[in-house]
User: Fold this.
Amino acid sequence: MPHTLVADYANDKVIISINPEPITASSHLQNHLTLMEDWYTKWRLKINHAKSMYTTFTLRLLPCLAVSISGTQIPNSQTVKYLGLTLDRRLTGVSILNLSV
Assistant:
């Protein structure tokens, strides 16, 4: 999609939409999810809705549009965790997960 970026690692996928207006960014994200829904349906793959979440990174207190896939709304979260990093929606802090092996 022209207005989104995708970062994949193993079975994790992050879809990023950047726009100064959070509502526009959410709209671009929803367009991407709609196309993904068609592809996942075609190849009979299921999305784990329990592990899916949506975060808008902004310092503004503007409302953001809800996004959904396969008829299920993706829950909005104040933080998102990806590859051991926890990012809050204002990007004011980053937590790093250290694993002992």
